[in-house]
Specification:
The complex is a heterodimer of chains A (113) and B (113). By secondary structure, chain A is an all-beta fold. Chain A has no helices and eleven strands. In chain A, strands 2, 4, 5, 6, 9, 10 and 11 form a seven-stranded mixed β-sheet that branches. With 113 residues, chain B is mainly β. Chain B contains no helices and eleven strands.
């Protein structure tokens, strides 16, 4: 299924680098989400956007900066990350925040050196 | 607070039925979901049930909801090796929901030939 596409699939970066994760959805949805999936922990919701406006920010460190230029695209800008930020970052979309279900992309596997 | 619990591991033989269980705490949840995650992939929506339903069947999948006990189960009939994956239960975050899904930690299903 190519409804939600994430790039890159894998990313290795040093702690001082700046990089961005990209998510694109082709489902005509109005809400988009970033999740973090770490080993042996439940999925953690990071950010929710509805019609390009951020509606939820789950106490995420400022080294993660989201951007939603339109309802089809979502970015996660990364800078000065820590080793504990190594994880799978998943993007999802839904019709709107109150109308689920959410459809997920395949994620970006991020490794911080 | 809101919480979703699942057993961590289940092993079955090919052709048997699998039953994956989940308990949740938020009685105001509108929908409950089952997602499947294969290695190296994102979360694939399998099925979901509205909170006023007791049962939903979709081909080999049967979802049972006991709202009184806050218990959700997923039964996979005639389990195949391709069903080996991690299965996540999730609930919608109740009233005032801004797209928040609460996930369990996932049940790893191992199917032996």
């Amino acid at each position: 299924e190519t409804g939600v596409t994430q790039t890159p699939r894998h990313l290795v970066m040093g702690m001082t680098n700046k990089k961005s994760l990209k998510c694109e959805q082709h489902l005509g949805h109005n809400a988009m989400y970033w999740y973090k999936q770490s080993a042996k922990k439940p999925l953690e919701l990071m950010f929710v956007y509805s019609l390009e406006e951020r509606v939820e920010n789950n106490s995420v460190p400022s080294r993660f900066s989201p951007e939603c230029p339109n309802s089809s695209h979502l970015f996660l800008h990364l800078h000065t990350l820590q080793p504990e930020d190594s994880a799978l970052y998943l993007c999802a979309s839904s019709q709107d925040p109150d109308r689920q279900p959410q459809h997920f992309g395949d994620g970006t596997r991020l490794s911080i050196l | 607070g809101e919480d979703v619990e699942q057993s961590l591991f289940l092993s079955v033989r090919e052709g048997d039925s699998s039953v994956i269980n989940c308990t949740y705490t938020d009685s105001s949840s509108t929908y409950l979901y089952w997602y499947k995650q294969e290695p190296g992939a994102g979360l694939q929506l399998l099925t979901y049930i509205f909170s006023n339903m007791d049962m939903k069947q979709d081909q080999r999948l049967t979802v049972l909801l006991n709202k009184k006990d806050k218990h959700l189960s997923l039964r996979i009939a005639d389990t195949q090796t391709g069903d080996s994956a991690i299965y996540f239960c999730a609930e919608s975050g109740g009233s005032g929901n801004t797209g928040k899904l609460i996930f369990g930690q996932g049940t790893t299903l191992q199917v032996k030939p």
